[in-house]
Write a structure and sequence with these properties.
elongated, 2 domains, 13 strands, single chain, 378 residues, Rossmann fold, alpha/beta, six-stranded parallel beta sheet
Length: 378
């Protein structure tokens, strides 16, 4: 029996305009270090959603021997891990290791899958090298995923974490994974609370406690890592707000702009701005506007080069712009770089110049109403 031309045509239209499958939403629970409670918080939310009728499964759970975490996973369906056989040397027996069963999770088709330790490196022989790649595959099938991550596993922060803690973090994920997440939850505790948990044996076994307290879990390290985690998430939130509406962005992080010139007091301004940026953990910018109507002398050129060198030593970004309109250039840079505070020197213009041309300070205040100005006396 043959279908009518109209039926075939309707079927063709239906297939052509069929809605694409929804991509799953990814929610990441992030913290400053192991033991802050990321997995526990994830399980808490999972229980709440299950009570609301959401189909939740545990795709991969790492309790690390923590009793509270293991108990919190009760009454949640757990997808069994798959075994991967590693062939050792000829004199050794094959070694069997367990890994998350991505195919089983996808075949089960839950609404939500819980997957611990996003930065984990899969065992050799797995389809993907990293667990976040398995998560990506699961998301593509339309399954929502909750996952956990420590801040030190972000690729861009690797060198900074090494400087803070002296620890080389080998399991890392691209920053784009965090940026692409639909929601990021910071699970935060004080350094003192985390050290107490460690001493009570809630994070590592007793044999590792003293060594951990003397190394990675030193209070100074935890303070720096905590700040790093909070700042990273604040930056992400700010970027999202800018993408949503560039006119009404929300400045969460401080950004300092120091305006230097060929005058010797520029070094003083630069150091003052660097101190302000250091106090506030702010990003530092140094701006030199080169008047297009005049050439710099050798001495002035050396002075500008000194400002640039000091900028780099202070960890700032040096900007040199050719322009005949100083105030407009400062305003444009401040808006582009989302500056929150500007450091400038007191004017050297005469009263007549200010009367006829207007004060730079006044122009900045009128144009940048949400920016604080620091006028440094010389």
């Amino acid at each position: 029996m043959f279908e009518s031309n109209e039926a075939v045509s309707n079927q063709h239209i239906s297939n052509q305009y069929q809605r694409p499958k929804r991509r799953g939403k990814h929610k990441i629970f992030i913290g400053m270090a192991p033991g802050v409670g990321k997995t526990y918080r994830m399980l808490e939310e999972a229980h709440s959603l299950k009570q609301q009728g959401i189909d939740v499964v545990v795709g991969l759970l790492e309790t690390h021997g923590r009793v509270d975490t293991a108990e919190k996973s009760q009454n949640l369906e757990i997808i069994p891990r798959k075994q991967i056989l590693l062939q050792g040397r000829s004199a050794m027996l094959p070694l069997s290791l367990s890994e998350m069963d991505t195919d089983a999770i996808i075949a089960r088709k839950p609404q939500l899958a819980l997957i611990d330790e996003l930065a984990h490196t899969n065992v050799p022989g797995s389809v993907y090298e990293k667990r976040y790649q398995d998560v990506e595959q699961i998301l593509e099938t339309g399954i929502d995923v909750y996952s956990t991550l420590n801040i030190q596993h972000l690729e861009s922060l690797n060198d900074l974490v090494l400087k803070i803690s002296g620890v080389v973090v080998r399991e890392r994920i691209p920053d784009s994974v965090l940026e692409a997440a639909d929601e990021v939850i910071v699970v935060d505790v004080t350094p003192e609370t985390l050290q107490e948990r460690l001493q009570e044996g809630k994070i590592y076994a007793a044999a590792k406690i003293d060594k951990s307290l003397q190394n990675f879990f030193k209070k100074s390290n935890l303070i720096a890592l905590r700040e790093l985690a909070l700042r990273e998430i604040a930056d992400n939130i700010e970027e999202e707000k800018i993408e949503e509406n560039n006119l009404n962005y929300c400045n969460i992080q401080e950004r300092i702009l120091v305006c230097v010139s060929t005058y010797p007091n520029s070094i003083q301004l630069l150091r003052r701005g660097a101190r302000i940026a250091n106090y506030m953990n702010a990003k530092l910018y140094i701006l030199f506007v080169n008047n297009t109507g005049r050439f710099l002398s050798r001495q002035e050129t050396l002075h500008v080069e000194t400002c640039q060198r000091l900028s780099e030593e202070f960890g700032g970004e040096f900007l040199q712009i050719n322009s005949s309109n100083l105030s407009k250039t400062i305003i444009d840079v401040a808006r582009k770089e989302r500056i929150t505070q500007i450091v400038i020197g007191e004017t050297r213009h005469s009263r007549w110049e200010i009367l006829f041309k207007g004060s730079i300070v006044q122009k900045l205040m009128e144009a940048l109403t949400s920016v604080d100005l620091h006028i440094i006396a010389t």
